[in-house]
Amino acid sequence: MPYLDDNYTKPVLDSLNDVHQQTGHGWPRIFRDWIDIVFASLQRDDDSHGGMVDRYESDFGEETTQTAFRAYSEGFANLLAAMEKTDADVLGCLYQEYGAPSEENGQHFTPPPAARLLGGMSIPSSEEIENTTPDDPLTIHDPTCGSGGLLVGAGQQLEEIAESPYAALFFGQDIDSRCAKMTAINFAIRGLPGFAIHGDSLKADPMAAWKVMPSKGLMDAPIQECEPPQFLSTSGDEAPGGSSPPTAADGADEAGERNVQVDVDVDLDTQQAQFAAFTDGQGGADQ
């Protein structure tokens, strides 16, 4: 049974199917490459993006590469359009159906309605929400976040029940790097400031972390690689190793945004053109 109505996912899949027709790659490979391309673009990471362009050109030639990357760009624009129409985790639903989730890692994502319900259970009282500040934000953490569906649900519920300005930071961690990247992408599009972390939550050795700053805008590097944030200890006094709790230096400045969930109210033609400019054969927006 599909995780989401085909009306939301079909336009994205049609775009990615164009890549399949051009390259012969299977769906798991195409989905992985698409996530990496979108992620690199939202970081403005020319080196990573250029490396993928070089690999495609080596395998398929320049013309096929340009066609494939244009289709990847259209897939991103269609993802934005789908996320404008539904609160569901479109990216996670696509991954579950076509991205070959890992059975070894037990990847069975929570369906969107349940994710929204469970995410709402993590929201504290209205009084606690009202007392938050950028230096002392509400923090919501999912240690096995998948594509960030529960955190997206929590953000939606928080936005609906808050009666005054508040500050919040979202933390998502997953042992699968693809999932951590999908979480960062979801944060950037849905307007959730926070951190996406790649690493085993049962070990204190995260492999990578990215700070997400939605206020920067999708085409102005809202995702930036950073040092893994320090989390509060169970005592509530200080973080492991004596580090301070999250403050403005750790991203709490971003937590001061009023709208935790923002509508994806964009000109999709312009958005696609901007994204395509970055995903051209040269790997740079100004080339």
UniProtKB/TrEMBL annotation:
<dbReference type="InterPro" id="IPR052916">
    <property type="entry name" value="Type-I_RE_MTase_Subunit"/>
</dbReference>
<dbReference type="Pfam" id="PF02384">
    <property type="entry name" value="N6_Mtase"/>
</dbReference>
<feature type="region of interest" description="Disordered">
    <location>
        <begin position="227"/>
        <end position="266"/>
    </location>
</feature>
<dbReference type="InterPro" id="IPR029063">
    <property type="entry name" value="SAM-dependent_MTases_sf"/>
</dbReference>
<dbReference type="GO" id="GO:0003677">
    <property type="term" value="F:DNA binding"/>
</dbReference>
<dbReference type="InterPro" id="IPR003356">
    <property type="entry name" value="DNA_methylase_A-5"/>
</dbReference>
<keyword id="KW-0808">Transferase</keyword>
<protein>
    <submittedName>
        <fullName>Type I restriction-modification system methyltransferase subunit-like protein</fullName>
    </submittedName>
</protein>
<feature type="region of interest" description="Disordered">
    <location>
        <begin position="125"/>
        <end position="144"/>
    </location>
</feature>
<dbReference type="GO" id="GO:0032259">
    <property type="term" value="P:methylation"/>
</dbReference>
<dbReference type="GO" id="GO:0008170">
    <property type="term" value="F:N-methyltransferase activity"/>
</dbReference>
<feature type="domain" description="DNA methylase adenine-specific">
    <location>
        <begin position="96"/>
        <end position="207"/>
    </location>
</feature>
<keyword id="KW-0489">Methyltransferase</keyword>
